Amino acid sequence: MKKIVLASKSPRRKELLKKAKINFIVVESKYKEEKSEKFDKNFIKKISDCKAQDVAQSIDFDAVVLSADTIVILDSVCLTKPRNENEAFFCLKKLSNRWHTVITATTVIDGKQKITKTTETKVKFRNLNDDEIKKYIKDFKPFDKAGSYGIQDFVDENTVKNPPETSFIEKIEGPYDNVMGLPVETVKDMLKEINAI
């Protein structure tokens, strides 16, 4: 079997692959992501592709390269990573009592073979008050997360269907791990498609 290279330093993506018992090594992509506030599915596919291609060109051994890019969409607008507490606060305030969509574009490259797929999950937040938003930002510092939150801070795979009352998450439709940044079943299907697992 060829080595699988994860083109990401995300601790959540590493954790999900380990849990799925997929052996991999990490080679971080140096690709400088462009930013776009307007939603365009082709745009995130392009970022995922570019990350994978950057690593595929940088390694000198035969391997399958896996990359991903995740965005949070509300009213056709991309909610990017917040730069400070104010941005995080206003982002979470916007998500309060609303549905939003989390989309991950995943790419695998094996030599000349390349596959990119997108996976969507819909998430509904309960009504949030200002104090609990501020406390969450202070305690969890979600500045490296699109949409200003990490789903694993509120629910896990066991509680996602019946979230605790304190959870910001009220309902979820679609894969939980997609909201964490890597839809594992999609990844497995893609790796099987190119005979990598």
SSE map:
Blueprint: E1 3-6, H1 11-19, E2 25-26, H2 41-58, E3 63-74, E4 77-79, H3 85-95, E5 99-110, E6 113-125, H4 130-140, E7 169-173, H5 176-180, H6 184-193
Helix pairs in contact: 3-4
Detailed description of the structure:
It is a single chain. The chain is an alpha/beta fold and 197 residues long. Helices cover 32% and strands 26% of the residues. Strands 1, 2, 3, 4, 5, 6 and 7 form a 7-stranded mixed beta sheet that branches. The radius of gyration is 17 Å and the shape is globular.
Q: pLDDT average, as an integer?
A: 95
Q: What proportion of the residues is helical, as a percent range? A: 25-40%
Run of helices and strands: EHEHEEHEEHEHH
C-alpha-based Rg, rounded: 17 Å
Could you give the count of β-strands?
A: 7
- Shape, please? globular
**Strand count, sense and closure of the main sheet?**
7 strands, mixed
Share of β-strand residues = 25-35%
SS class: alpha/beta
Distance between the termini: 7 Å
List low-pLDDT spans. none
Helix count?
6
